[in-house]
Amino acid sequence: MQFTRFSLLLTGALASLATLVSAQAFCSEAARFGSLSLSQKNVAPGQLFTITANLTCAVQLGNTPTFLEYYIDGVSTHNIGGPIFLGRTTYDTSRSPPQDQLSLSLPIWFYDANATYSVRMDDLFARDGPTGEIVITVGSISTGIDITGI
């Protein structure tokens, strides 16, 4: 009887450890704030598109968002006047699977045809400070977008 209880406890402990190791093995360091996908990669100013954030790894690794902010970032040989704010959402922790979506029209702006653009998501998440107060910290991820018709 004692052997059976010990076996059950050991099996439960090993299963919990396997789940933790599996989550950490599946979730790379690069995915610690989630991953992004776009409904389409080629978007013209004024055109509708949807950003989807998969937050499975962010939640599994303890970076559960409080807020999510979305931006367009650009890189060029000269100043392009960014980032461009796209929107902010309050994360719904009851969503299963953990994700967020933002549907919008690409803002009409002074885009540069020679620039490289990306959509950036800032994951604003809470951490306990050294004296117990809650501090909001930020981690970012991005994915490329081709802005057409400029």
UniProtKB/TrEMBL annotation:
The signal peptide, as residue positions, is 1-23
Top-rank taxon: Eukaryota
State the UniProt keywords alphabetically. Answer: Signal
Q: Report the protein name in the record.
A: Spore coat protein U domain-containing protein
Q: What is the organism field in this record?
A: Roridomyces roridus
What lineage does the source organism belong to?
Eukaryota, Fungi, Dikarya, Basidiomycota, Agaricomycotina
